[in-house]
Amino acid sequence: MRVFVIESASPLDLMDGLSERKTLEQICKMMGHEVVTFFAKSKDEFTTICNYISSIDEIGRNENKDKPICIHISSHGNEDGVLFGKDDLSWEEISESLTPIFSMDYSKDFFLAISACGTDEQKMPIHLKNSFKKNNIKPPKYIFSINQDEVKWRDAVLNWTILYHQIDNLDSNKRTDFQRLLDRIINSGFGNLKYNRWDHIKKKYKSYPTKKGDKKLQLLNSLK
């Protein structure tokens, strides 16, 4: 897999050495992935980075050697969006900035990982579905996020380490593969990931765990 990590840590995070991109760069390389990291201090820089990544489409290459691409966004956020420096981007604005990437003529699947607080209520599936209708993008096959309101740095790193360790062993066409992985992560007590999977027949995203599954998770946590 080719992983592009786009991070916007706060100045204090940087002083404390809490950089997800640096950690993930080493982890992904250890797992055999190709990885490039970027740091975005504003909305304009985030948009510029997305445009730069999309330049893959302009380069002559052997498409038979394409690998799935994962765009990993790491930032502070809440249910309304994420921060890039002082710029508060809504989920719709993030979707717009990502459009050049998902508009590429690329032979393999796209994935999206969002690492921020509030992503249990993130609205990316809605806006990416709208972008599919409006811009004819190739929607990311899976959108991964951490299924809790508040996310600590060390918890985020652990969640993503498990995902990137296992993802190459899964068949992206078999949703049960990903469901079993998420179940194992949740039941282990070491993580709490969710996904939104693009249904190419119904042209919409479906989530897992479902709200019913979330209630089961809350019950398990209350028993610990």
Q: Could you characterize the architecture of this molecule?
A:
The protein has eight helices and ten strands. The chain has 224 residues and is α/β, with parallel strands linked by helices. Helix 5 links the parallel strand 7 and strand 8. The C terminus is likely disordered. The relative contact order is 0.13. The strands form two sheets. The chain has a seven-stranded mixed beta sheet with strand order 2-1-3-7-8-9-10, sandwiched between helices. The protein has a three-stranded antiparallel beta sheet with strand order 4-5-6. It has one domain: Rossmann fold, CATH 3.40.50. The radius of gyration is 17 Å and the shape is globular. Helix content is 41%, strand content 24%.
Kindly summarize this structure in a few lines.
With 224 residues, the protein is an alpha/beta fold. It has helices at residues 11-15, 20-30, 43-53, 91-102, 124-135, 153-166, 175-188, 211-222; strands at 2-8, 34-39, 69-75, 77-78, 81-84, 87-90, 110-115, 142-146, 193-199, 204-208. The strands form two sheets. The chain has a seven-stranded mixed beta sheet, with helices on both faces.
